[in-house]
Structures are given as structure tokens and as C-alpha cells.
């Protein structure tokens, strides 16, 4: 069984699978959830690739879905459920085992979801600013948050213009935000500039897309990283 995200960045996968001489049971994460198109919001700097594609479309709408579906615990639960159902179909003898594992993990995801709901409900504000790429649209949509960010989630160039930095500085000031966020593996330079200009602090929101070698060696889990994000959201909305 193959579990993949699907979408633009995995377009190569169909070519690989077409070359197989046997059927592959495939679960596409984007098909398990309400897929959202990648959003280009006010103040967001569009990458050179997106500008080139837009100019080549000659007015035609180019649909590109945000692939970071797991950033919502509810989506993660939906994906796990589909994996469980497929496993029980392929291995009926192990159905009880798969179902129990899913129920146990689903309960943890629902607890995580409740923690995020409480963090948002008890927050003093409703806006997040990302001095970085923005791969967490499913998260903000799930919890009704507003946001501003420097780049779309799949941007290929992340060198901000002075205009982009100035816009985010203005958003931090206008919304009286205590923190600006960055994602994992960021060089944090833009966040540092915004902090220097506004006096806010910088916080990590982990998109659960990449982990360090140390995190990998230590066996860090999705739940651990997302629980850290609960603390980040509490502080960012305080």
C-alpha cells in the first residue's frame, strides 16, 4: 500500500506507478480531505515560478492545491481513518488490530484538536503573522484564524522584498501582536528584522513537514510537534 500526498509536487508519481506491472493500492491524502487551493493573500510575495505560470496561463485559472493537509488534526484523523479502512480491506484478519490502533490514535488527535480550540477561544486576538512561507492554511481554516505571511506554502524563493517585510511589520503593529512566527528550517532573518522593528518575539510553528536529524533520531512524533504548536498559538494569541 502506498500513502502519498498527491498534488502538483507529486505529479511524477503517476509516471512511476504506470511503469509497475502490478496494481498498487494507493491512498491520496488530498482525496481524504476538503482540499483547499493555495492562497495568495494580501501582502504575500509571489514566487518567480508562480509569476511565470500565471503569465503563461493567458487568463485561464490554474488550480494548485495546498498539499500540507496534515496541519489540521481533523484532517490527520480523516487520513488515518482512510488508511485504517484500506488496511482492514487488504488484511481482514488484522482488522481488529488496525481498528483499535485507529481508535486510540484518533482519541489523541481529538484531544489535540480540543487543545487548539481552547487556545483560540481563550486568545485575545485572532491573527497570526508568518515571516516565512505559509504551509498551514488548513490549520487556520480549521480554527477560524486570520493570517498574513511573506510567501505561499510552496514558494521556491524566499528572499523577501523590502515591501514584503514592511507590510508584515505594519500588520504586527496594527494588530498589536506579541509574536511573529516562522516554520522549521527557516533562517529566521525576516523574523529577526520584524522583531527588531516592533519589539515582538519570534516563535516556531512547526509545519510537521521536515524534522532535524536529531529529531528523527529521537523519534519525534506528529503529536509531539503539534503539542508544541499549541503552546506557540497560546502565546501568539495572548
UniProtKB/TrEMBL annotation:
Name the UniProt record assigns to this protein: Periplasmic solute binding protein
Tell me which UniProt keywords the record has, alphabetically: Signal, Transport
Q: Which InterPro entries match?
A: Bact_metal-bind_prot9, ZnuA-like
- Per the similarity annotation, which family is this? Belongs to the bacterial solute-binding protein 9 family.
For biological process, the GO terms are:
metal ion transport
Q: Which Gene3D superfamilies match?
A: Nitrogenase molybdenum iron protein domain (3.40.50.1980)
MF (Gene Ontology): metal ion binding
Amino acid at each position: 500500500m502506498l500513502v502519498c500526498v498527491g498534488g502538483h509536487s507529486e505529479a511524477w508519481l503517476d509516471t512511476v506507478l504506470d511503469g509497475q506491472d502490478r496494481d498498487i493500492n494507493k491512498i491520496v491524502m488530498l482525496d481524504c480531505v476538503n482540499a483547499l487551493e493555495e492562497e495568495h493573500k494580501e501582502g504575500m510575495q509571489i514566487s518567480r515560478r508562480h509569476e511565470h505560470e500565471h503569465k503563461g496561463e493567458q487568463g485561464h485559472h490554474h488550480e494548485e492545491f495546498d498539499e500540507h493537509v496534515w496541519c489540521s488534526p481533523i484532517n490527520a484523523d480523516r487520513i488515518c481513518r482512510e488508511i485504517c479502512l484500506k488496511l482492514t480491506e487488504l488484511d481482514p484478519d488484522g482488522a481488529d488490530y488496525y481498528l483499535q490502533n485507529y481508535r486510540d490514535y484518533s482519541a489523541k488527535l481529538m484531544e489535540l484538536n480540543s487543545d487548539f480550540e481552547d487556545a483560540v477561544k481563550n486568545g485575545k486576538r485572532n491573527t497570526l503573522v508568518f515571516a516565512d512561507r505559509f504551509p498551514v492554511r488548513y490549520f487556520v481554516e480549521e480554527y477560524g484564524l486570520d493570517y498574513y505571511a511573506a510567501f505561499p506554502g510552496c514558494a521556491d524563493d524566499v528572499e523577501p522584498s523590502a515591501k514584503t517585510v514592511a507590510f508584515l511589520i505594519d500588520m504586527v503593529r496594527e494588530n498589536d501582536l506579541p509574536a511573529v512566527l516562522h516554520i522549521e528550517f527557516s533562517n529566521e532573518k525576516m523574523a529577526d528584522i520584524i522583531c527588531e522593528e516592533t519589539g515582538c518575539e519570534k516563535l516556531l510553528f512547526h509545519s510537521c513537514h521536515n524534522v532535524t536529524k536529531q529529531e528523527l533520531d529521537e523519534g519525534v512524533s506528529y503529536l509531539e510537534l503539534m503539542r508544541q504548536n499549541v503552546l506557540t498559538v497560546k502565546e501568539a494569541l495572548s
